[in-house]
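Data availability (excerpt). All sequences and predicted token strings are deposited with the supplementary files. A representative entry, NmrA family NAD(P)-binding protein, is shown inline so that the format can be inspected without opening the archive.
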Amino acid sequence: MKIIVSGSLGNIGKPLTANLVAAGHDVTVISSNADKKSAIENLGAKAAIGSVSDSGFLTETLKGADALFAMTPPNLGGQNVIANTTEAGRAFAKAISETNIKRVVMLSSIGADLPTGNGPIAGLYHIEKLYNELNTSITFLRAGYFYTNFYNDVPMIKGAGIMGGNFPADVKIPLVHPKDIAQAVAEEIVKTSEGKNIRYIISDVRTPGDTAKTLGTAISKSDLPWVEFTDEQSLEGMKQAGIPEEIAGLYTEMGTGLRNGKIAEDFLKSNLSVDGKTKLEDFAKEFAAQF
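Structure token line:
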């Protein structure tokens, strides 16, 4: 198959590209960074350098392809994040429609069933709605909270001896490893299913308190606590760390959605399977190696 992969060579794109090339597919990787061209070609894929907000570039790239992995960056600039993310989805939708590509796997998220109260995930809600209008086979791959987000806690662990966020230690959160997402995309993109389908890709379901203990044990800090911050503390902490105010506000809102259970609710209430292979204890080893 001729497959287009967006998302460059990040935590998902790199293992996905390697997987698809090894399986014998003709793979083109979209990247906005021309410096990635050699690395993409070294994996045995072709590089298409351009912006996912440019429908003309996307249309040209998608011509003649059998399938697309569509991934929109979550933070397109420090302002108008939801609108910019949605516009990138609109550009993809236009290119998909104009090229009549037959199979699409879209990276979405837990909480994408919600129009509001989910922070940056709201952009994915709008994109799912756009894609639902397309006459093609689409799987909305709703991923859990990335394990790799916990790397953001490293300065807090080293500086204050805690992990934390504006959600409590005992709330259940569906978690996922990017390489499990890559595996799920590789499985879904070659399917010949019809219509629109939703698949959740989750590696583990754990609480923040359990996460802090597990990661803490891996770095020889078995008493590492999870501290719940207020929304105001969370917002100010991110702003002080240099995160743009709009993005800090969106991530604070996402934390609120995790705290009240709304973001995880659709997955948890459906008793769906946990398909990912990488459990929290497995990720803890990676975390310790990076710590």
